[in-house]
Amino acid sequence: MNSPLGDGTIPVNRPCLPPAERILPYLREIDSTRRYSNFGPLHSRLEIRLAEHHGVHAGNLALASSGTAALVALIQALIPTQAENKRLCLCPSYTFLGTGAAARLCGLEPFLLDVDPITWALNPDTLEQHAELEWAALVLVVAPYGRPPDFVRWEEFSQRTGIPVIVDAAACFDAIDASAVVRGTIPLAMSLHATKTFSTGEGGMLLAADPALIDRASRALNFGFQNDRTSVGPCFNGKMSEYHAAVGLAELDGWATKREQFIAAGQAYACHGERQGWNQALHVRVDRASPYACFLAPTQEQATTLAAALSRKGIGWRRWYGGGLHQQPSFRDCQADSMINTDELAWRLIGLPMFPGLSPQAVATIADVIQSSLL
After folding, report:
1. pTM exceeding 0.90
2. Rounded to an integer, what distance in angstroms lies between the CA atom of residue 316 and that of residue 12?
3. Domain ends where: 219, 235, 253?
4. Which is nearest to 371 in space by CA: 301, 274, 291, 287?
5. CB-hemisphere CA count at 13 Å for 368?
6. What pLDDT, in 10s, does the model give residues 13-57?
7. Percent of residues in the chain assigned helix, strand, coil, to nearest 5
8. What's the CA gap between 267 and 265, in Å, rounded?
């Protein structure tokens, strides 16, 4: 089958970053300033422009070299030391590896939790009754596939339990209400990786209400330095380079068009889903840019059938979170709850192609495969 991409396949993801001509003026600025890293002028400009884009103050936002680095910096800034009896980070098993890896890099041990079958995320009401709360230094909440959590409920949870909460909002660049976040108390980290909607190629972003927390996180990203050569607190090298900031500035220049392309792809999926009667199983955004289109098959067997059908047609697909962290060799030694919902969700949820420039014809082809596999 020849796809609209002309290479015989429809990939599950096809990143699209700014073209060279749009990045070039920023690269020339780097040539002129000879600043390549260490919070240079492009880095500062990107922070300011992103803050304006999200309707927050520049002091509420910081950049990092990756989404994982952003998470690590937030953890180090929020809980610089842990009591000997509080070494656990409570987090969902149904997430990307970066969530658990960030906790471990900060000296915490992930305790893996099952997720709610409807939200695919942790439930603060259920978690409040968990036996391990007294040993928890942190709760890492995940926004699965860019679906933001209920920040107010998590604020109430944190207030009642006294346990800090951070949101891993990796894919939430266009989904998050940043102004609401900075009116609250729960900080978050985003990914600016090439596979996300807004990208610097590789990068991360931190958002918090408290500028002092952002300052501490920025210091943690820079070996503990801030305006001097004195290292204070937990730290590492997680700064965003000027080259990545250049890509980010060029990306922001063309963001409106790219955003429209993501939304158009989501709307095309939704149109087919509604017409063919499986829109309830389809999870896409039609009002915001999202890097994910997911199909929740009625059963694991039907998910397997769909995956095989997509493969036969040369259409890419993914189980983006695999079987969950508890299935990964590097996390199998973690304490964990029973994973009834995670095990079911991980095998029923199929990630479909989603990227800017995904044509209506390609979506129609994918929709036909979904429809035939459900018969």
Report:
1. yes
2. 4
3. 253
4. 274
5. 8
6. 999 999 999 999 999 999 999 999 999 999 999 999 999 999 999
7. 45, 15, 40
8. 5
